[in-house]
Structure formats: structure tokens, C-alpha cells
Amino acid sequence: MKSVSTGIAALAFAALAAQADAKNLVVNGNFEQGNQGFSSEYTPVDEICAEQEYIVGADPSLVNCYGDWASFGDHTTGSGLMLILNGALSPGAVLWSQTIPVQAGTNYMLKYFGATVVKSDFANAPTIQAYFNGTAVGKPLVLPVTYDGRWHGGKARWNSGSATSVTITLVDTDTAGAGNDFAIDDIKLMARP
Prior knowledge:
Number of strands: 10
CATH class: Mainly Beta
CATH architecture: Sandwich
Low-confidence stretches: 4-20
Strand order of the largest sheet: 1-2-3-10-5-8
Oligomer: single chain
Largest sheet: 6 strands, mixed
Shape: globular
Mean pLDDT: 91
Structural class: mainly beta
Order of helices and strands: HEEEEEEEEEE
Strand content: 35-45%
């Protein structure tokens, strides 16, 4: 019995060690370095007052001119930075993109977190889709219509095939104008066995 317990403990430890050693390939995926390391088809501004604008900031309620955005902290620590956006009216507008070197023939996992920032009832549900080299991968992350006090996780699995680099883009596929406002944080891409 003792050798079975020891074997199970060793396997569990090895699995945890492998997860800890997995390196995040996304540069500035937690946005703590501010507005750098990524590209966007949204316009960076000092205060969000129109569609297709964004800010890297610490609290959505402090960076908009609407008055109905919730006050909350980032996903990483609760006191850091996040990407705060007012959704685009045009379909396919890239809210975040980064080109990343990868190993051929390797499985990867993309993880990211999103939160709705609007408190009012007339909002629309932001719907975030991940694309790898222009192809939609994984299920879209459909955020709640109104702020619910939580960050929600999105993920996508991808195999690199013969590719040695990948351009990952995140797109809000909801093009409604009213209340399509959200935050993104902790974007990670890691190799998986």
C-alpha cells in the first residue's frame, strides 16, 4: 500500500513540476508593462468615450465617460493593470494580437481571462474569439451581459504542425454598440504535452 501511495504522490509531484516549468510565451500578457508588446486595431486613448477604443489601466470605472462601468481590479493581483476596451462596431476588428515563435509539431494551450465592465441592463454580451494564424480555434468566450464580479476564463488548444511562429489574435465578435465593453487580462500561451 505504501509503494502505491508513494507512486501516486510522485506522479502528482511530477505533474505539478511540469506545470510550473511551462513557460508563458506571450510577452506582457498581464499588461503590467503597459501599452507595449502587442498590437491592436482599437485606438489607444486616455479616456474611453467611443467604440473601438482601449486603455491599459487599473480600474474600468476611472477610464470612461459613461458612468456605468464597474470598479474592480485586474485578474493577476487585483491591483495591477488590464486591457480595458469598448467593443468595435465593425466585425473582425482585432482587439489584441501578438506574433510568437513556436516549436514545430508541438501542442499549445492559450488561456486568457475576460470580464464585462458594464453595470447597466442594456448591455450586450462581449464574445471573444481566439484566432491562430487567421483560423478560429476553440470556443468563443461569451461574457455576461452585465458585470457579475468575476473574471471568466477562455482557452484554445492548438498544434503548431510545421509552423515555427504563430500570430494569435483576439476578436470581439459582438458588434453591438451599447454596452459591449469589457476587460482582458493574463493572456498565456504554453506548450503542453
